[in-house]
Amino acid sequence: MKKVIAGAAMAAAVALALAGCSTSSSGGTASTDPKDVSGEITYAFWDPNQQPAVESIIEAFNEEYPDVTVTPVVTPFAQYWTTLQTQASSNTLPDVFWMNMPYFKLYASNGQLAPIDDLVESGAIDPSKYPENLTDFYSYDGQQYAVPKDVDTNAMWINKALFEQAGVPLPSEDWTYDDYRATAKAITTALGGQGVYGTAFYLFGQPTFYNSVFADGGSIINEDGTASGWTDPGSVEGLQIWADLVADGSSPTVEQLSETLADQWFVNGKAAMFPSIAGASVALIGSSPNAADYTAFPLPQGTQKATVGHALSNVVSAQSKNMNAAKAFQAFLASQQAQEIQSESGVTLSAYEGTSDAFVASYPNLGLQTFVDAIDYAFPYPASTNTDAWSAGEPAIFAQVVSGAITAQDGADQLAAAMDAALAKE
Amino acid sequence: MSERRNGWAHVVLIVGSLVMLFPFAWQLITSLSTNAEVTSIPITIWPSSLHFENYATVFERLPFLSQFAISVVITLIRVLGQLLLGAMAGYAFARMRFPGRDAIFAVVLAILMVPPQVFLISQYQIVQSLGWLDTVAGIVAPGIFTAFSAFLMRQFFLGLPEELEEAARLDGANPFQVFWRVMLPLARPGLSALAVIGVLASWNDLLWPLVVATKPGQQPLSVGLATLQGQYVTDYPVLMAAALLACAPILIVFLIMQRRVIDGLAFSGMK
Amino acid sequence: MTVTTLKRPAGTSVPAAPAAPARRRRRLSSGWWPLLFVGPFLVGIAVFYLFPILQTAYYSLTSWGPFGGVTFVGLENWATLFTDDEVPKALLNTVVYILIVLLGVPIAVWLSALLNRPRLRGSMTYRTMFFLPYLAMPVAIALVWRLMFNGDFGVINAFLRLFGIQGPYWLSTPGYALVAVGVVGLWMSVGFNIIILSAGLRGIPPELYEAAALDGASRRTQFWHVTVPLLTPSIFFVLVINVIAGFQLFDLLYAIIGRSNPVIDDTKSLVYLFYDESFIQNDRGYGAVIALVILAVVAIATAIQFRLQRRWVNYV
User: Fold this and answer.
1) pLDDT in tens, B31-68
2) Helices (H), ranges, C116-261
3) For the domain that residue C287 is a member of, what is the CATH number?
4) Residue in C closest to A395 by C-alpha
5) Cis omega (within 30 of 0) for bond into C206
6) All chains having 3 or more CB pairs closer than 8 angstroms to chain C
7) Whether residue A18 is found in the same domain as residue A64
8) N or C: which end of chain B has fewer CB within 10 A?
9) Set of chain B residues whose Cβ sits within 8 Å of the Cβ of C183
10) Is C258 helix (H, G, I), strand (E, B) or coil?
11) Which residues does chain A have with pLDDT short of 70?
12) What class does CATH assign to B61-269?
């Protein structure tokens, strides 16, 4: 019986997708009169901090499309994917919703998303206005499904006051991971007696070892997402760096870093540096009592400059019952106007070319331009069809490498084995 | 025995109460701190000044009162349904004879042993095919039928004397009249206990209403609370303030029903 | 399973008059009435719970697409079970957690005995205090406990330091992390246990204590020879409920340890494993197998308890 339901669902999805295609050539494009588009659609996302911006964007959208009602739905991140998956299994996905890189291929490869090729053709969405390295990520099987909504890169947060106190000069902007290690060591030597560490870091990939692996010319997963990149010598080096920091005593131990997070060490003046994701840190650092001491610095380099770039996007469900309105809204979300509204809220770094100024100005003294500049050398977030299947196990192995329980080479071997086993199931 | 002889008992109970109360008290203090204080190291327990505005922020960020009202409606329907169905089924399992009774009861019990997440997708599809998505009926439907309520009420009825039933039956009452007029009033303490447990479960239920009710105007308070947690950054003092505001009404219900609850749960000890 | 034991109309700690067997036999086989009483309930149970469980049993023989669409694969998923060393590890973790939570039972017995002393002042206040943790919202209270257990800065280690003990990093050392979660579970369950046990205690006739006192029994002797034996039915019920609930360990683990703490790998519970397979690994078929394993394990544990109760539970 289940099979019958699923079969019917597929047929319905295909029919809807076809309907979407056929209408869009005549209706869902910018050339059509927006007054002809009407109906109700839902827009699902997870960040309550972005709700005000979303509401302003809907208001602006309604000036152009007065007959479309958009209902915003906030689902907490912890339950977001479980909720979407339940809805997708029953063809009740929201019409428009946030997509991230780890989950994109899962939804695209299972026919859950409506492509935007028609919108691109008609000029309603202009992908050239978006960072190419991240936009390409949202294509699957030759079809484009979205453009980035905002971009998350990484930077090193630095406590200038602690540097001064330790008598250690600020590093140059093109510093290397060796310099990072030496700087951390120097600060620890000077201030260790007061319980201050040179650096602290998180125990998962995006703000830490993903960046160092890319910087050393390695990779986490190969380009078509079919095999692990951990066999690359550069990847092993990218792991080693973090073990060295702990072995030097320049960072708290693994136990300390898992019980007291890197940002806590930093904002309490117990660590002089920590690398972090823009979205996870800007508001936190900016609202901290000692914000004047802090600045964002580019990540260290290895053999090349690198950071991992993550971009969210807005996608349309292939099952949407109001494809015209959904696509019109999706196109509007990707417009310069909407991207500027989002940027002005200061919560996130808009992806559209030239709309980042408002984000940088949200905390003018924090050096936020660093995050914007990093987009140029960003590598797309490593992902496969079922990213969580292998990434969920990474922190445990990384922790063992960092603590010195296993060598970086053994760690890389274990990460490779775990990932390849997971990829084999995809 | 005089109160004096209970001296040691008081010492033990006070120490025990403090252990029980400490995390709660800390939660209260946290709700009056700043986020920087909550994440400060070394940990500062007492904030430099009390930030009552965290409670005001809850009302700004959440449509607290309307979500509260929705929670009340959902909880009332769900708990009343549980009480009625649980009492009737529990009575039948305890006192009536019908083929396969014990086997059926064992199956009902087994439901308690399955991780609740197992039911999520199936129940969603069932509710969808009933056309109940985004309706109050959809939110409350599965929660009305709980194996726990039948189990609890069965245990309770097993402990009640049969003489009263016999008397009523000899007076010519039919089984429903016996149940409704004689047994149900006797079961009041048990029903009170079930009510408190049911209120708590319904009030805190998160995943189901989240998945079934996606329209913002229909979400209960538990969902509202969950949206206070960001992907990376959570404003803990506001979350704590909201959590305390949310559990306050349950505490009041408990205090009102305390005597009944404690008497009511008595039956559970029987068998 | 529990059929044979459950149907025994075991006595109660409340001195209910036992019904005369003759009368009981005479009682009607109730005609259509039972259908009226259990019918509506059973329809709901069948639709919302039994059907999903049967579906799960079927899914355990299939491979799932992430959004539905099943392929029959026979016993493949079940074969995986026997080569999967995560399952025994998770079972062990869950059992360790349950054992810690069960420590709350003797504590609750002792506290209830104290609470039920005659003429104890403030017993309602104490009861409310002990009930409070049961109201706690796991996500909110987990933060407080994480701060308390923090290895460097937590109050628990600060307290231990007063006695010259250097406490461990509770939440990031494999063995201790489970203990920490167990302690919070115990904290949350004690109040509930106390209420049930107190109610059971109230069923013990005061004359028994008077008789014991006349025989010159000390309070301690009374506790061990009157209170505990007569409380066994309540203790039994509390044990059964605690074990069933303990096997469902998930929310607390998720809230206190979290997914990105490296130690999670060593502290996974059975339900965590089920969640991981079904929703993270997207392997619904194998997730279904684990769900059924959980059902089987809990059913066996419950059946054993019902069987053993004859040896130590005294029904009046």
Assistant:
1) 898 877 877 777 777 777 888 888 988 888 888 888 88
2) 123-135, 138-149, 155-162, 174-202, 206-214, 219-222, 228-246, 251-256
3) 1.10.3720.10
4) C262
5) no
6) A, B
7) yes
8) N
9) none
10) coil
11) 1-32
12) mainly alpha
